[in-house]
Design brief:
Mean pLDDT: 93
Low-confidence stretches: 159-164
Order of helices and strands: EEEHEHEEEHEHEHEHEHHHEHH
Strand content: 15-25%
Number of helices: 11
Oligomer: single chain
Strand order of the largest sheet: 3-4-5-8-9-10-11-12
Shape: globular
Largest sheet: 8 strands, parallel
Radius of gyration: 19 Å
Length: 331
């Protein structure tokens, strides 16, 4: 697989990563099977999808334990990214950016992941009660201690909203602050055909500074694969059950996006899928961009990895850019 680099340290990873969250968190619980997910991780590494993206809150903790089972056998094949800063309660999630907690959380993640170093340690959310510089400073100490190789900021769900300016203005202000303390190697934020907002300011900010961009949800939480049926329903623990784009009405209204992706796919051969076109579009947004599609089955991991070899033509890119915008939004 093509290799891409993250940050000024030129940390090399496969062009398409693996989001491990669906294996343990946020999607249908009845379909989460540890051994099957473990095989998916191994398949990803076989295919060259070396970046494994997890977090201590996924489960909580069980996702890191799962990834750790694979890392125990194949640490040299993997680039592990995990996150800190969110605590999961019974009915709520709270931020914790206190320096002492960050250091304890890192040690706990290292134990669960069965490794002596985390390749990319990301701040999942800033704690409103703690200056972000203090949290970032504690993370920088982990780099100096040899427990972490590079630092990143996760901007998923951290949008500022149009009313206060650009969608990621708040994130960029935060990035400017932490850059004064220790270099940012990567930013993780949503980017897909139906959620392209990061192209406006966040992606250019990263490109101008040599910061890697991990594209979260590049398949639109599964919608852009074309495998979901409007009105199919979701299990209560599945986050899509509460997402405004996944009502039966909105899924039907957004079908033209999938139809357009399939049309482009058909020009590249019978085996090319809408999902692969969606990932190839993300890859085409810059050499510093690494899509991190979530998957928990070997079949989907293999299909996603193959997107790294799909080259969209200028005509393809123009056609995708001309697809209708998604209907239904949190904004």
């Amino acid at each position: 697989m093509e290799r891409r680099t993250i940050g000024a340290g030129a940390l090399g990873v496969g062009a398409v990563g693996l989001g491990c969250m669906p294996m343990s968190w946020a999607y249908s619980g009845s379909r989460q099977r540890g051994d099957e997910s473990l095989r998916a991780v191994h398949r990803a590494l076989d295919e060259g999808s070396s970046l494994l993206d997890t977090a201590d809150m996924y489960g909580p903790f069980t996702n890191e334990l799962l990834v750790g089972r694979a890392l125990k056998e194949r640490r040299e094949d993997a680039f592990v990214s995990t996150k800190v800063g969110l605590l999961v309660g019974e009915q709520h999630i709270v931020a914790n950016g206190r320096p002492g907690y960050v250091k304890r959380a890192c040690d706990a993640s290292l134990r669960r992941l069965q490794t002596d170093v985390i390749d990319l340690y990301q701040l999942h959310r800033a704690d409103p009660e703690v200056p972000v510089e203090e949290t970032w400073g504690a993370m920088a100490e982990l780099v100096r201690a040899g427990k972490v190789r590079a630092l990143g900021l996760c901007a998923v769900g951290a949008r500022g909203g149009r009313r206060s300016g650009g969608l990621y203005d708040g994130t960029i202000r935060q990035l400017r602050r932490v850059q004064q303390v220790f270099p940012v190697s990567a930013v993780e934020a949503e980017l897909s055909v139906w959620s392209p907002e990061a192209l406006e300011s966040l992606l250019p900010w990263c490109a101008a500074r040599g910061v890697g961009f991990l594209a979260a949800m590049p398949l639109g939480n599964g919608f852009l694969t074309g495998t979901l049926t409007p009105g199919q329903g979701f299990e209560p623990d599945d986050m899509r059950a509460r997402h405004p784009r996944f009502t039966a009405e909105m899924m039907a209204a957004n079908q033209p996006i999938v139809v357009g992706l399939r049309r482009v796919a058909a020009r590249h051969g019978e085996t090319v899928t809408a999902a692969q076109v969606a990932l190839a579009w993300v890859l085409a947004q810059g050499r510093h961009v690494i899509p991190v599609p979530g998957a928990k089955r070997e079949r989907w991991v293999t299909e996603n990895a193959a997107a790294a070899g799909l080259r969209l033509t200028p005509q393809d890119l123009a056609e995708v850019a001309g697809l209708p915008g998604a209907q239904g939004s949190w904004e």
